[in-house]
UniProtKB/TrEMBL annotation:
Residues 301-325, 996-1025 are annotated as: Disordered. This is DIS3-like exonuclease 1. It is found in: Cytoplasm. One of its GO terms (cellular component) is cytoplasmic exosome (RNase complex). Residues 996-1021 have a biased composition (Basic and acidic residues). It comes from the Eukaryota. GO terms for molecular function: enzyme binding; exoribonuclease II activity; RNA binding. Residues 460-810 form the RNB domain. Its EC number is 3.1.13.1. It is an enzyme of class 3 (hydrolase). GO terms for biological process: gene expression; mRNA catabolic process; rRNA catabolic process. Its main location: cytoplasm.
């Protein structure tokens, strides 16, 4: 039954006037309360408030508007959001805020519900004459709270929180059973231990008070209203795109990357330069903005010079390139603000700054973010700390954006603080798994060992007695998520290859808390010294680890191949039971293949005849596997698969967390064999799910690179007499293979680096949102590809496992058990996962740089031999060059011209000094001329550099390189400093690296268990690194998207040292 009433609204018109609107409003008696404890027979659909709380809390509209962040603490439970409060917050703060609120309401990890109080007959109250909107809202919320209390028959106390002191007085005295208190009092009384929430509350309310006393003089042009922007974009007058700030010239140079192609600007295929702060008009890096082009006469060029970090450098005219389309920001379509880590100004500066106001200017860690104005009384106490802040607003009257502090991270310069900073800066949230999540996990303990379920056993194909299953992993690896099998089928005409992957989706049900957490993490995060798992340890290191000699659930792909031609005759996909017979490590497998003497631990106890027979069986399996992998690889090679190089090297740490020298091991063929089988499985699963769900399958593609990005590579190769043909991946792969300098293997390696950097990222996508000809994976030379083989550490694989099961079920005509995600939902998810992967790569890279700085920080560059190293020039810039230091896997800028305008001059013995002179740049070389003569540095020349650390108070420290000799560096002790695996695929080197790490950790655990246990608890949510990040990321070119960390440019290379 519904009742009609009237609702009077006062809306602001676009001209600023007020309009009174009367709407029909329907109320009803039954509106669900959404409580688990309800005894009044409400609907029990959807999310329910936990009954396991001491009270329910109902925030007033202003609290929801201004302090939503505080309500976002997961510790706060039993929150009832009223419709009144939500609508008011939406109205006042806009869509973004509202979406955040909706996200909270949907997320089962937050104990809160929406109560539609305005539809409830008894809690709805119309506005009274003369009543202000705020008072009315507060009254509505109060009535809702009273209704709640009565509806639950007093089972739970109800607390209403408000910022309105009059309301506290007025309603508290009504004695309705509902407590009405201020937000501050609520936090102090009910959550005395939740210090962080109280601090955040204080910080936000300070920021709010400050804003009321703002000046009114305009610093910036007003943004245009949304309707005007929308119309302007449609008509082509304005251009829509994402603002990207050049981190090396953050105050002066930003670009708007063009999104979509509006017909009017079809000829405009470059980025748009936004020069200076006024034209940037309060847009912050990452915001979606609308831009108006400036007249041609006002266009400027981008800077091509290497720049000193903070951007205070002067730019000569020679450093500017051709004028390019330039524009100004006329409006912001979407703010993409995140949490920022900042440092407060030093004491001296603080005093001069705060003379006039309570506000201080905090400097963000990220160079691209402007200083943020914050009101705090803690500025002095937090001098040397890193602090998280959020930006609240940036009005046209304020030179800087206004924000408030959220949390103190710790002292700057300390490892933990810096690591946390890197995580926050990449928007990576990896809290400890919650109790509720862990309660979803199966138990496997000594007194309660996990057992297979009878029904599961009978529904799966049992391979335990029929298939010889084994795993090959790095030594000491504990989490095995893939295994292999291979056998000759009866009759001898056919072979069967099997890839068996941990059946993670059996344990992680869709929509469960574990699933949601894994989905929001999207991946396991690997940093230089630690990792944060996507799934709890009981899965990743135990029940989903396909260990030897134990029964496990698996998802399998089995191929029947022609024994001669290795053509695929039949493929079977499905859920299986396996028991791995051998847990091999790479060296052991390779030794067996090489016919060397090797002891297989699983066979040690057997009698010699049986041992010999089993060994022969295993060896035959390994040999067949190798033959198949060679065949598969050859097929892909024919299609144009690329082997590329990256130069990221992960820091390996000794006991004191110093980087231990790289001790290379021989790369082994068996690494590639395993990788090839995984690629094959991923490919075939991609085919299967795409055929079954042509519009809603999750695949991974690698778009072909834009030809102009190869120009640098082509030019560089030419200087050494090589021709690089970039017309296709096949020609590129072939010409790279031929571009080998027998005297210097680094030449080939650096060219592969350039090729890599010319390419874009491999990305996940939904099949419905991309034409079929764009499914192609350029790097792997496969027409379809996805991720299936590592569900423990990648959420994409979890989705793919579910899709594969759905495909199998629909085929069996069982009908789909559940509805699949729509194309749109899947595409959004793919987008989210791509972003998280990029964040993971950045965080990893930054943590490596952190460790490099930590390594060099305590060494004296003038006396320590380790600070002097050989470097190879790989890019020429206007005032210097970029070099690669093989010994440390480090890239950086070397300047040939200093701030005083002096240039590097070379003495007879090759040593360098600064002298007055000039600089001349050519495509393949750069020359300095001084009174001593002219000295030229060519691409691929080896020089000697000195490495030191440039400390930074507000940002990360940076490695600084100084040219000290124009000759190659001769290491004092030979051998040790030489890099390994030159010209090898990065995949192989990556395996080697992980392998070392795994054994290092295994050793570490044996010897130093107790010492590490705190960290292990905290960071290494499971113990050994997982093999898989090596397999796909590199071999499939999940390359770092350089466009994100560097200014967009037609030459994708930029300086990375000072990064
Ligand atoms: Zn109810």
């Amino acid at each position: 039954i519904m009742f009609k009433t009237e609702k009077v609204l006062h809306l602001k018109s676009s001209r600023g006037g007020k309009v009174r609107v009367v709407r029909e409003h329907y109320v009803r008696e039954r509106v669900s309360c959404g409580c688990a404890v309800c005894e009044a027979g409400c609907d029990r659909d959807g999310k329910l408030l936990s009954g396991d709380v001491t009270h329910y809390v109902v925030p007033d509209a202003v609290v929801v508007r201004d302090f939503l962040e505080v309500l976002e603490f997961r510790e706060l439970q039993g929150i009832v959001f009223t419709q009144t409060a939500c609508q008011a917050a939406h109205h006042a703060r806009g869509r973004r805020h509202y979406n955040r609120l909706r996200g909270l309401l949907k997320d089962p990890r937050h104990d809160c519900v929406l109560f539609a109080n305005e539809f409830q007959q008894y809690s709805y109250c119309p506005r009274e004459k003369g009543e202000t909107q705020e008072k009315w809202h507060t009254r509505c919320v109060y009535h809702a709270a009273v209704w709640y209390y009565n509806h639950l028959a007093g089972l739970k106390p109800v607390v209403m929180i408000t910022e309105d002191q009059d309301a506290v007085k007025e309603y508290s005295s009504l004695n309705s059973g509902v407590y009405v208190i201020s937000t501050r009092e609520y936090l102090e009384t009910f959550w005395p231990d939740l210090q962080a929430a109280q601090e955040l509350y204080t910080s936000i309310s300070q920021a709010l008070q400050e804003r009321e006393s703002e000046a009114t003089e305009k610093e910036y042009t007003e943004h245009l209203p949304a309707e005007v922007l929308e119309a302007g974009i449609k008509s082509g007058r304005y251009i829509q795109g994402t603002l990207s700030v050049n981190k090396h010239r953050a105050q002066h140079e930003a670009f708007v990357r063009f999104e979509g192609s509006s017909s009017k600007n079809a000829d405009l295929n470059s980025d748009i330069l936004i020069s200076g702060g006024k034209l940037r008009n309060r847009a912050i890096h990452g915001d979606l903005v609308a831009v108006e082009l400036l007249p041609r006469g006002e266009w400027k060029g981008r800077t091509t010079a290497l720049t000193e970090e903070q951007g205070e450098e002067k730019t000569g005219e020679d450093a500017q390139s051709q004028p390019m389309p330039s524009g100004r920001v006329v409006g912001i379509l979407q703010r993409n603000w995140r949490d920022y880590v900042v440092t407060f100004p030093p004491r001296e500066e603080l005093q001069s700054q705060s003379r006039n106001s309570q506000k201080i200017l905090a400097v963000p860690w990220d160079y691209r973010i402007p200083k943020i104005r914050i009101s705090t009384q803690q500025a002095e106490a937090l001098q040397d700390h890193r602090v998280i802040v959020r930006v609240d607003s940036w009005d046209s009257t304020s030179l800087y954006p206004n924000g408030h502090t959220v949390r103190v991270l710790g002292k700057a310069g300390e490892l933990e603080t810096e690591i946390q900073t890197i995580l926050i800066e990449n928007s990576i949230h990896v809290p400890a798994f919650s109790e509720a999540q862990l309660r979803e996990m199966p138990v496997n303990s000594a007194d309660q060992p996990w057992q297979m379920d009878g029904a599961e056993v009978s529904s799966r194909r049992d391979l335990r007695d029929t298939h010889l299953v084994f795993s090959i992993d790095p030594l000491g690896c504990e989490d095995v998520d893939d295994t292999l099998s291979v056998q000759t089928l009866p009759g001898g005409k056919r072979l069967e290859l099997g890839v068996h992957i941990a059946d993670v989706t059996h344990f992680v049900k869709e929509g469960s808390l574990t699933d949601l957490e894994a989905r929001s993490r999207a991946t396991t995060y690997y940093l230089a010294d630690r990792r944060y798992d996507m799934l709890p340890t009981v899965l990743s290191a135990d029940l989903c680890s396909l260990l030897g000699g134990v029964d496990r659930y698996a998802m399998s792909v089995l191929w029947e191949l022609d024994a001669e031609s290795l053509e695929v005759c039949k493929v079977w996909y499905g859920r299986t039971l396996i028991r791995s017979s051998y847990q091999l490590h790479y060296e052991l497998a390779q030794s067996l293949l090489n016919g060397e003497e090797a002891e297989v631990p699983e066979l040690a106890q057997l009698e010699s005849s049986e041992q010999g027979q089993k060994l022969a069986e295993l060896l035959q399996a390994l040999e067949t596997l190798t033959r198949m992998a060679r065949h598969l690889r050859a097929q892909r090679d024919k299609g144009g698969a690329l082997e590329l190089e990256g130069v990221e090297v992960r820091a390996q740490l000794d006991e004191d967390k110093n980087i231990a020298a790289l001790v290379p091991k021989q790369p082994l063929e068996v690494h590639e064999t395993v990788a090839e089988c995984m690629i094959y499985a991923n490919h075939w699963v991609a085919r299967k799910i795409q055929e079954s769900f042509p519009h809603q399958a999750l695949l991974r593609h690698h778009p072909p690179p834009r030809q102009e990005f190869f120009n640098q590579l082509i030019d560089c190769a030419k200087t050494r007499g090589f021709t690089i043909d970039t017309r296709s991946n096949k020609t590129l792969a072939d010409s790279l293979d031929h571009a080998v300098d027998p005297l210097d293997p680094l030449v080939n390696r650096l060219m592969r680096v350039m090729a890599t950097q010319a390419m874009s990222n491999a990305l996940y996508f939904s099949t419905g949102s991309c034409p079929e000809e764009q499914y192609y994976h350029y790097g792997l030379a496969l027409d379809r590809y996805t991720h299936f083989t590592s569900p423990i550490r990648r959420y994409a694989d979890i989705i793919v496992h579910r899709l594969l099961m759905a495909a199998i079920q629909s085929e069996k005509q069982e009908g789909l058990h559940k509805t699949l995600a729509s194309n749109k939902e899947l595409e959004e998810l793919a987008h989210q996962i791509n972003n998280k992967n990029r964040a993971a790569q950045h965080a990893q890279k930054q943590s490596v740089e952190l460790f490099q700085c930590l390594y060099f920080r305590d060494k004296d560059p003038l006396t320590d031999e380790r600070c002097v190293a050989d470097a190879v020039i790989y890019t020429i810039r206007a005032n210097g060059m970029l070099v690669f230091i093989p010994r440390y896997g480090l890239k950086g800028a070397v300047y040939l011209k200093n701030r005083e305008g002096q240039v590097v001059s070379v003495r007879d013995d090759g040593s360098c000094e600064w002298q007055v002179g000039t600089l001349q740049r050519y495509p393949d070389r750069i020359s300095t001329s001084t009174s001593r003569g002219t000295h030229t540095f060519h691409l691929f020349d080896h020089v000697t550099v000195r490495i030191s650390v440039e400390p930074s108070r507000c940002h990360s420290d940076a490695v600084h390189l100084e040219l000290i000799n124009n000759k190659p560096h001769q290491a004092v002790r030979s051998g040790e400093a030489q890099p390994a695996g030159r010209g090898q695929s990065e995949l192989v080197r990556e395996v080697v690296r992980r392998e070392e790490e795994a054994s290092l950790q295994a050793e570490e655990q044996k010897s130093r268990r107790p010492k590490l246990s705190r960290e292990e608890r905290e960071f290494r949510q499971s113990r050994t690194p997982n093999l898989y990040s090596l397999l796909q990321e590199i071999s499939e070119l999940a390359l770092l998207d350089l466009s994100v960390c560097h200014p967009p440019t037609a030459e994708p290379q930029t300086c990375t040292t000072s990064a």
